[in-house]
Amino acid sequence: MVFAHGFGCDQTIWRYVAPAFEDRWRVILLDHVGAGSSRLDAYDPARYTTLDAYATDLLEVCAALAVTGGVFVGHSVGAMIGVLAAIAEPDRFERLVLIGPSPCYVDDGDYVGGFSRQDIDELLAAMDDNYLGWSSAIGPTIVGNAERPELGAELTNSLCATDPDIARQFARVTFLSDNRADLPRVPAPTLVLQCSDDPIAPASVGAYVAQAIPDGTLRRLRATGHCPHLSAPAETVAAIEEFL
After folding, report:
1. Which one of 135, 177, 198, 231 is the catalytic residue?
2. Are 135 and 223 in contact (CB under 8 A)?
3. Alpha-carbon Rg of the chain, whole angstroms?
4. Which of 59, 73, 205, 231 is the most interior residue, by most CB within 10 Å?
5. Which domains does the chain have, with CATH numbers?
């Protein structure tokens, strides 16, 4: 099982979920370049202008560790990175689990991504103006669960620990990507886990992803916010177990 984190996180975000599978699976955790304990000198802004570069990194890790017929579990933009990797090399993963995925964050005609282009432009401008202040505000918003402020504080700390220049570019790549056309090409059975009251990927997005993937299944969680693997790990594990 290969776990890929989302924007602003690192592999430690899986600490409540990944151990549940270690008795039956070889569990692989990775940090996207620029996050966690990854090598910052490996980051090339000219290369990491699309999610495809991150998908290539994921596949290189899988090749180095001889992963075939595995299970991919990805959160948020990490989910879409896994989608691109699975399309490029279908033998790597026999099943995908996508937690809070969004192929496009910007509303477009009948498609409801959850944000207008102006919303995204303002979000990115706020990052440019005051990255630490933006991180302190957005962390609790992403996680939700206001009654558990320690969860928002964890994501805030993770965001603040990320190199601001890398985070700004990764945010632009994340929030301005449009991978809707890739979804019909996903070759493996896929579980879409959709949180209740997700501020980043609304219910309409989860339904869209599950419907667009040929063998997609939507599972709505009772968990709220955008990070159920942090806020509701037991429910998240149970949903993955049922799918597998």
Report:
1. 198
2. no
3. 16
4. 73
5. 2-243 (3.40.50.1820)
Q: What is the pTM of this model?
A: 0.93
Closest CA to 17 of 241, 226, 194, 195: 241
Q: What angle do CA 140, 221, 95 make, to 5 degrees?
A: 105
What is the phi/psi pair of residue 6, to 5°?
-100, -170
Could you say which of 76, 102, 177, 231 is catalytic?
76
Pick the catalytic residue from 5, 32, 226, 229.
Answer: 226
Number of other CB atoms surrounding residue 83 within 10 Å: 28
Taking CB atoms within 8 Å and a gap of at least 24, the contacts of 127-131 are 127/164, 127/167, 127/168, 127/171, 128/168, 131/164, 131/167, 131/168
Catalytic status, residue 182: no
CA distance 169 to 149: 27
Eight-class DSSP state of 90: G
- 198 a catalytic residue: yes
Digit-by-digit pLDDT tens for the chain (244 residues) are 999 999 888 898 999 999 999 999 999 999 998 877 778 788 898 999 999 999 999 999 999 999 999 999 999 999 999 999 999 999 999 999 999 999 999 999 999 999 999 999 998 898 888 887 877 777 777 777 667 777 667 777 777 667 888 888 988 999 999 999 999 999 999 999 999 889 899 999 999 999 999 999 999 999 988 889 988 999 999 999 999 9
Q: Transcribe 199-227 into DSSP letters.
A: SSS-HHHHHHHHHHSTTEEEEEEEEESS-
